User: Fold this.
Amino acid sequence: MIVNGKEFKIVPYISKERIDKRILELSKIITNDYKGKKLKVIGILKGSVPFMDALLQNVDNELIALDYMCVSSYRGTESTGVVRILKDLDYSISGEDVIIVEDIIDTGNTLNKVIEILKTRNPKSIKVATLLDKPSRREVDIKADYVGFEIEDKFVAGFGLDYEQYLRQLPYIGVVEFI
Ligand code: IMP
Ligand code: MG
Assistant:
């Protein structure tokens, strides 16, 4: 495959079966953590969509409301460290128990900035769920409360994650290998 003049292939890394199984485990933990509570779940567009969808369908709690935010901090495979809000939340989070859902935490800069912004809006609590975590790349001290998989320092795509906006629709996660 060639995108923007760069040739690459996608090498299977985490199968759909493993992803589904792990997400189900996280759903059960979240069910327990928010028993009897209303919950606001914020998806960071666009990468979190398949993860958030699978995660919440198996959380046993009717009182979950969704909202989405779109931020941008990435160009190609390298973090710019600059975070822009492209689309803000539609609703207030004041007094609410919030879970932010991300596709991946890499340097941590994006999430750090998002949390900083959301904290000023006085939520009751903020937790973070991420499908993938690359702890070896961290530049800021930030940890997710719910982590699907810790991965090595590889550029991955699929299950919401993109390479130059492509590959998000893949049902599995693969490593993008340049040829
Ligand atoms: P951070 O600010 O460095 O933590 O980067 C977070 C964002 O970078 C994620 O939401 C992704 O959009 C993107 N990103 C980081 N690593 C990867 C990767 O391996 N594949 C695809 N996107 C990635
Ligand atoms: Mg992203």
